[in-house]
Amino acid sequence: MTTNTNGRCHGKLALVTGGAQGLGRAHCIRLAQEGARVLVTDINADGASDTADIVNAEMGAGTAYSIRHDVTDPQSWEAAVDAARENIGGLNVLVNNAGIGVPGNIEDCDFGDWQRCFSINVDSIFHGCQKALPLMREHAPGSIVNISSIAGLIASDTMPAYNASKASVWMLSKSIALHCAKKNMQIRCNSVHPTFVDTPILDGTARSAQLDKDVLLEKLARQIPLKFVGEPNDIANAVVYLASDESRFMTGAEMKLDGGISAM
Ligand SMILES: NC(=O)c1ccc[n+]([C@@H]2O[C@H](COP(=O)([O-])OP(=O)(O)OC[C@H]3O[C@@H](n4cnc5c(N)ncnc54)[C@H](O)[C@@H]3O)[C@@H](O)[C@H]2O)c1
Prior knowledge:
By secondary structure, the chain is α/β, with parallel strands linked by helices. The protein contains eight helices and seven strands; from the N terminus they run E-H-E-H-E-H-E-H-E-H-E-H-H-H-E. The longest helix is centred in the middle third of the chain and has 28 residues, at 111-138.
C-alpha cells in the first residue's frame, strides 16, 4: 500500500497506546510520516521501544519516544502524560488503541475475563481522557481517537464481552465529544470501527478456532463484501485523518472501516 507523506499532522503531539505491535505500531509510523511527534506507549515496553526505533530510523532521532504504560492504571496514565510533556513537548492527539478480545459466549465467558476486557478496552479511555485533557487543552486544537471495532456496532454470539466493551467505547466517545464541544475546548473525539485486520490479535482468534492463521484469514475474507482482510495502514490512514485538522468539523462520529460488512 502506498502512503502519503504530506505533513498532514505537522505540529501534532501524539500519544498512542498499544503501540508495540499491530494497529498501534502502524498508527505511530503513519502519524510520524505525516509530521507528528509520537509517544509510543504499551504494557510491552520492549515492543514500544522497537516501534520508536522504527519511527526514528525513518523520520529522524527524537521523532518518537516510548514508555511502558498500563492503560488500566490511573497512575500509569499520569506518568504517560508527564512523559508526553517532557519528551514530545506536550499533547494534542490521543489515540486510545490498546485493546483485547476474550473468549466465551454468555454462558461460558469467565467473569474475570469479562472484567479484564472492560478494564483494558473501556476503563483505559475513562482514565486516559481524564488524565490527558488538561494537557491537551494547553495544546489545542486536539483530537481523541478511540479504536472501537465493528464488533461495537454488530454483535456476535461468541464475543459478548468484546461486543459490549466496544459498544461502550462508541457511546463514551460521543459523550466525551459533546463535553469538549460544550466547554469550547477545541478538542474533538471520534471512534473508529474496523473489521478484521491482519495483526497479532488474530493469532489468538486462530488459536481459539483451532485454525492456521492463513486459513482463518481466507475464511474471514469471505465474510467481507470487499473480499479481503484489512492491512494495518487501512486503519492508520483513517487515524491520520482524524488526528489532523482536515477532520476539524467531525466530532462524536463513528468511522466504519469494515469492507462493507455493516452495509449488509
Ligand atoms: N486487528 C483487528 O482485526 C481489529 C479489528 C477491530 C478492532 N481492533 C482493535 O484495534 C486495537 C488494536 O488491535 P491490534 O489488532 O493491533 O491488537 P494487538 O493484540 O496486535 O495489539 C494490542 C496491543 O495492546 C497492548 N496492550 C494490551 N493490554 C495493555 C494494557 N493493559 N496497557 C497497555 N497496552 C496494552 C498489547 O501489548 C499490544 O501491543 C484494539 O483495541 C482492537 O480491539 C482490532
